[in-house]
Amino acid sequence: MYEKIEYGKIKNKSDWRYNGLANQHFAKEAPETYWKTSTDLPSFPALQEDTECDVTIIGGGITGITTAYELTKRGFRVVLIEANQVLNGTTAHTTAKVTAQHDMIYDEFIRHFGLNHARLYYEANQNAIDYIKGIVDEHQIDCEWIEQDAYLYTANENAVQKIRTEHEAYTKLGIERDLIKDLPIPLGSKLALVMKNQAQFHPLQYLKALLEQIVQKGGRIYEETVALDIKKGERPEVVTKSRHAIKSRFIICCSHFPFYDGGGLYAARMYSDRSYVLAIKPKIEYPEGMYLSIDQPSVALRYTVVNGEKLILFSGVSHKTGQGKAMSTHYETLRQLAESSIGIESIPYYWSTQDLVTIDKIPFIGPMSENEDNILVATGFKKWGMTSSAVAATLLSDLVEKKDNPYESIFTPSRFHLNPGLQKVISYNADVAKHLIKGKLEKPDVQFEDISPGEGKAVTINGRRAGAFRDETGCLHLVDTTCTHLGCEVEWNDSEHTWDCPCHGSRFKPSGEVVEGPAIKPLKQIDLD
Fold first, then answer.
1. The whole model's pTM is what?
2. What mean pLDDT value characterizes the chain?
3. 440 vs 481: CA distance, rounded Å
């Protein structure tokens, strides 16, 4: 059973140093995702000229790649562009649970949207599992596909009724289920809800095979190609940072947070959430199954096999991007929770991930706005990108092909539900305004001369807030901390060595370059000379 741990509190500060993790369990000093280190991904050239196609896809993660795969399979000419390298963002940092059990949502969906709406959401995601498995089987992809049961559980007696209520929702929806008290793993469960016949896999091995299929079918892929703007029209154009244009019948934006808003007001209808993953060699024998706590701080567990041994992906302790304690404390909270439950021999890998959450917890998949049916978007997957990406790929491909799709109305970005939508819009935008004002008023008293190698902090220069980072060589990097998206003030992330925006989740390198959007432009560098 978990030892009670105060969220974000470091028990032994001697375990830490200014630039990250120093606990004896951690094999690496910097975050590194297992999926990337175990996959030899192909590389692609940058776009060097103007071009045309049927569909332009922006974003080289699981959604963009799966959509490109589906469209090329249907005979469309596709160009996929990625600002950095394919599979370098959120997809590489997932825990890769392929499941329709998206936390405690089905009772809530029935109450807010009705039984039919909730059933269609479940069917869309359960069908997505079958879709992915069909691709794995068709192409004989060696991606560690393993069917698993998924468990929601609580270790809190006061939350048992929540599990029972969600079980009733499963019953109404006809979901194959079970209600059990004891888990096959010592997590102190009081009651657990099982969703049968879900799955897990190695996401990058799966997607590497899809990249090969896209190229074989004539799809073109370009890396280091930043989409800067979209020119609307009957054949809209993507304008790149290098000033090349891609003209097509449809544009599909799969770039996590849309770089182009199109009047959809996405910044007002989503927020960015970070969570953390430890790949642990445990002291216990880990059984089958994927586990998710409904308690706070919430944690999730699944295993993957590395060199013949099970590593447990122990994840959770989420918070809004750029907000809360120093980022390294979240890793420590997660480590303490793991130590008190499964025990830790070592932590060969650890990483963090970023997800977007919509105001009603349902992804936005469809036309970017009501007036633009040839500019499409997929975003807001709320940590459940494995199935949501497959839902998006088939739905978006049907929209391109002018085919009916039974799930179109559920995911359409133009929807608006009064309950709970209105309250969450007000609450979220009040939070954005709070951080915007707070950042503008803050005048840090830190002097950049006092910053040590490997350390980053907000400082005041000539009466204005700035960001200072000193690298290991002693070189100082100074940037304007005003986010180039909508003007919030970024905060230092001590684990990832990035400047993170607390309003909409943009992230920047110490030198100011964009790591993750929606920002397109880098932070302005400050020269003291």
1. 0.85
2. 88
3. 10
